[in-house]
Protein: Por secretion system C-terminal sorting domain-containing protein
Organism: Maribacter orientalis
Amino acid sequence: ETGATVQLLATVLPINATDKTLSWSSNDPSIATVDGIGNITAQGIGTAIIYVTTNDGGHTATATVTVTEPTTANGTCNGILTDISEPVGSGTITSRNDFLPAEDRFKAFDNKAIQGTFSKWLDAGGIPTSADPSWIQLALSEAKRVERIVITSANDDYGRDPMDFRLMASNGGAFTEVGSWNGETFAQRYQSRTFELNAPGSYSTYRLEITKNEDDVEMTQLAEIELLGCVPESTQIISLTSKFNSIHNDFQENEFSFSPNPVGENRIVTLHLPNNLTDTEVMVTIYSIEGKLVHSSKFWNANGVYNFELQLNRSLPKGIYLMDARNRGKDVYRKKIILK
């Protein structure tokens, strides 16, 4: 809601990068502003994109922030809605047609709806109609509630933009229409528009069906789809944070990782510390989503040993936590960890 705040966290990789300077910005300060350390303040109802860019190399990550009306007595979602398709790669994506490989269906959920990336999904399967719509579908591993859908227009021909479309949903059986819109247009390239569902609910499969594009042409396109669902505030923060965990991609052996995730009832975790950390002390800390420290350990990364076994307290309750790995209190790797 207006006035609410949340902080996004960005980690610059590799851990030994010499310049970790970041710049933050918002594409619409009337909706949400961001300061120099990632603190977001809601200014008005709507959707804004937050950008964080590295000074070294100009690597950029984004997060979509939606500001809603305050909670009401009937349980309307409060504050920031989050994209249920996060992280990238969640669920199974199918479509009527792909313009392979450069503009395939996966581009609709890759978080690259930014001017200059040219990332988009293009359906070249013919003029869409109500009987034969252009469609793209996301099947999740579990049912999740969606309140709104955000569609971002692509980079070129306006005539390919969705104009009439509907969102269908299913839990394994017949599809139900949860939202429909007609006569919609996109005035700009890479314009993100938010549409509120008529009949929101919790479903495991969502399918966007485009029944008409702007010029009734054989190609239909869009840059990005976001399915916004209501989750507890603490989970919202973790979801937004996860979008910034890899601003700079590095080789896998130079990443902090752990397994399994989710962690089983034995509460044993195997850590892999970055190979570019040698002869140095690494502090591993775990926090609850409320910010309470629940575990801390120190490891000495030396003699080619980069994998360690971590025994957590078996009494830790199920839930979502944040794990940090710090190199002498300076460089930080942050990961989400789930205890089941």
User: Anything to note?
Assistant: The longest strand covers residues 192-213. Residues 26 and 50 are 5 Å apart (CA to CA). Confidence is low (pLDDT under 50) at residues 70-75, 232-254.
